[in-house]
């Protein structure tokens, strides 16, 4: 009997959730939060417009106060922020969608000019050197972070757990732990940024992965494992990130994360800056037993082939979803895509955020 493989347009079971398709919206930081890092009406409209996604993954959201890396990114550590995010979850659910919140700590990507002159923290005192950060004072260089002491790390884990509880109060359908793109949890994972020579959080893969796994355990106690996703990017060099063995790291993570029976594992398959190459998806697919989601540069045809071949269970699209609120409908009909305007990616207002045109009604 021939097994019929799914396509991008087929439903997908995610724990107790049933997703109508496998075209997900990837988390995109777009700096549209209001004063106090509150997700307001603008953000709610943005996600509601894109509710036809199989799953919306809301943008990187601060789990703890004093860790801003983007100036106007949202948070989930205050009562006002919970109320603000309720606008988004209510609007998305009214439009028939499902939405997870990405929980995030910027680590060394934070900057004193955004955080009341506080020095950022990291696994090791190594600064980001390949980029600048946007602040109210203009572009500034990243600073050398303060090395976190071992005794401080339970406080970080507790911050993620409280953020998970707040996300539930805000009405989200689940959460994604951000372990990618050179932010704090990723900084601990990779040996280019984690050069601790002793203690339980440095050296071996087991030690470097300890903080991520402790966070997963803590937030799973709040949500249940089947409402927790994890995002990783072992190859991505963004934010001055490197690992001496990214394929080995990816393989270890794939095996280790099986213990948690997560909602999904979300993998950025390559390097956004194209400085590093390699295949991490193949070993992850071989060893990871759960729902696997790919991201970075997929076309509709390539994504559909990956799902049909069984290499992925779903694909997350970032910029294409920004410029095309009705992306699943466009993929299904073969309609042309709107082209994104990079000049408005971080421009703070509705232009280039909520004004991309929809397909005309048939």
Explain the overall architecture:
Helices cover 29% and strands 16% of the residues. With 362 residues, it is an alpha/beta fold. It has one domain: Aldolase class I (TIM Barrel), CATH 3.20.20. An 8-stranded parallel β-sheet has the order 3-14-13-12-11-10-5-4. A two-stranded antiparallel ribbon has the order 1-2. Helix 1 runs parallel beside helix 2, helix 3 runs parallel beside helix 6 and helix 7 packs parallel to helix 8. The radius of gyration is 19 Å and the shape is globular. The model has no long low-confidence stretch (mean pLDDT 96).
| Secondary-structure arrangement, i.e. CATH architecture | Alpha-Beta Barrel
Q: State the CATH class.
A: Alpha Beta
Q: In percent, how helical is the residue content?
A: 25-40%
> Radius of gyration from the CA trace?
19 Å
* Poorly predicted regions: none
Mean pLDDT: 96
SSE sequence, one letter per element: EEEHEHEEEEEHEHHHEHEHEHEHH
Main beta sheet: strand number and arrangement? 8 strands, parallel
Name given to the CATH homologous superfamily = Aldolase class I
**Beta-strand percent range:** 15-25%
Q: What sort of overall outline do the alpha carbons produce when their principal axes are compared? A: globular
Number of helices: 11
Strand order of the largest sheet: 3-14-13-12-11-10-5-4
Domains (count): 1
User: Between the first and last Cα atoms, what is the distance in angstroms?
Assistant: 39 Å
Counted beta strands: 14
Structural class category? alpha/beta
């Amino acid at each position: 009997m021939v097994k019929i493989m799914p396509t991008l347009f087929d439903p997908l079971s995610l724990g107790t959730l049933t997703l109508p398709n496998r075209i997900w919206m990837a988390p995109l930081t777009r700096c549209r939060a209001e004063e106090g890092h509150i997700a307001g009406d603008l953000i709610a409209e943005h996600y509601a417009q894109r509710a036809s996604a199989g799953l919306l993954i809301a943008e990187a959201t601060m789990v703890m106060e004093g860790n801003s890396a983007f100036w106007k990114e949202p948070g989930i550590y205050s009562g006002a922020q919970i109320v603000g995010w309720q606008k988004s979850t209510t609007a998305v659910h009214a439009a028939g969608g499902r939405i997870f919140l990405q929980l995030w700590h910027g680590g060394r990507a934070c900057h004193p000019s955004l955080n009341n002159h506080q020095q950022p923290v990291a696994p090791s005192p190594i600064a980001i050197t390949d980029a600048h950060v946007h602040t109210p004072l203009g572009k500034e260089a990243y600073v050398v972070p303060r090395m976190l002491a071992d005794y401080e790390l339970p406080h970080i884990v507790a911050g993620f757990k409280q953020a998970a509880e707040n996300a539930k109060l805000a009405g989200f359908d689940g959460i994604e732990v951000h372990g990618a793109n050179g932010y704090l949890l990723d900084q601990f994972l990779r040996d280019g940024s984690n050069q601790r020579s002793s203690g339980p959080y440095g050296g071996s893969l087991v030690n470097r992965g300890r903080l991520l796994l402790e966070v997963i355990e803590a937030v799973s106690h709040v949500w249940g494992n089947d409402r927790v996703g994890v995002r990783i990017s072992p190859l991505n060099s963004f934010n001055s990130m490197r690992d001496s063995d990214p394929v080995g790291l990816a393989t270890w993570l794939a095996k280790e994360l099986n213990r948690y029976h997560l909602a999904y594992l979300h993998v950025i398959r390559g390097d956004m800056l194209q400085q590093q190459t390699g295949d991490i998806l193949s070993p992850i697919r071989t060893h990871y037993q759960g729902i696997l989601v790919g991201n970075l540069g997929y076309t509709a045809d390539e994504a559909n082939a990956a799902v049909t071949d069984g290499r992925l269970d779903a694909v997350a699209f970032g910029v294409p979803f920004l410029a095309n609120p009705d992306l699943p409908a466009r993929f299904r009909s073969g309609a042309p895509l709107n082209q994104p305007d990079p000049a408005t990616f971080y421009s703070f207002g509705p232009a280039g955020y909520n004004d991309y045109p929809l397909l005309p009604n048939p």
